[in-house]
Amino acid sequence: MGSMMNTKIAQEPEVPAASEPLKQTSSSTEATEIRCQEKSKGGLCYEVILAEPSVQAAVPKIPVNPAKIVSAEDIEEKLKAAEERRLQLEAKKITEWNAKQAKIEEASRKKEELDKEFAAQTKEALEAKMEQYEEKREALISDMKEKLKVHAQEIEKTRQSMENKKDEERRAIEEKLKAAESMRDENIKKMLDRLKEHERRAEIVRQNKAALANSDLNQEDSMTASSG
C-alpha cells in the first residue's frame, strides 16, 4: 500500500479503546483524513493518519498448501509417543514421590534417633541426679545421726553432772543434819548439866538453911535451959 503513515507511540495508563469520528474535507480533490486512537492493554497509544492511495496496490496472494494426509501409522506413533510421555511422567512422579518418601523416612529415622538419644541423655541425667540426691540424703542422715549422738552424749553428761550435783547436795544436807543433830544433843546435854548443877546448888542451899535453922533452935534451947 502506497500511503503516508505517521505512527506515534507513548506510554499511558490502561483505558478502554476509543476512536474519533471521521473528518472529511469539503473539497473532493483533498485527501480523506482519518484519525483514530487505540490504547492497547499494555498502555500503548497509536495515532494513525491515512491518506488516499496514489496508486493501486496489489493485494498479495496467500499460497494455498495442500492438505496433509495423516495415516493410521502416524496416529499410532503419536499415540505411542503420548503413551511414552505419560509413562515417563508417571515414572518421574513415582521417582519424585519415592524421593520424598525416602526423605520423610530419613527424617523420621533421624527424629527417632534424636528422640532415643534425648531419652537416653535424660535418663542418664535423671539417674545422676538421683545418685547425687541419694548421696546427699545419706550424708544428711549420717550428719543428723552424728549430731544426735553428740547431743545425746551432751545430755548424758549433763544428766550425770546433775546426778553428781544432787549427790553432793544430798551429802551436804545429810552432813548439815548430822551436825545440827549433834549440836542439838550437845545443847541438850549442856542444858541438863546446867539443870543438875542448879538442883545441886538448890539442895546445898536447902541443906544450909536447914542447918542454920537447927543451929538457931539449939541456941534457943541452950539459952532456955541456962535461964531455968
Structure characterization notes:
It is a single chain. With 228 residues, the protein is mainly alpha-helical. 68% of the residues lie in helices and 7% in strands. The protein is built from one helix and three strands; from the N terminus they run βββα. The chain has one helix spanning 72-227; strands spanning 10-11, 34-39, 44-50. Strands 1-3-2 form a three-stranded antiparallel β-sheet, with no helix packed on it. The N and C termini lie far apart (236 Å). The relative contact order is 0.04. Residues 1-30 have low confidence and may be disordered.
Separation of termini?
A: 236 Å
Strand order of the main beta sheet, please? 1-3-2
Q: Helix- and strand-based class? A: mainly alpha
Number of β-strand runs: 3
How many strands, which pairing sense, and closed or not: the largest β-sheet? 3 strands, antiparallel
Strand composition percent: 5-15%
| Radius of gyration from the alpha-carbon trace, in angstroms | 78 Å
Round the mean pLDDT to the nearest integer and report it.
Answer: 76
Low-confidence regions: 1-30
What is the H/E string?
A: EEEH
Helix content: 55-70%
Task: Describe what is shown at a glance.
The protein is built from 1 helix and 3 strands; from the N terminus they run βββα.
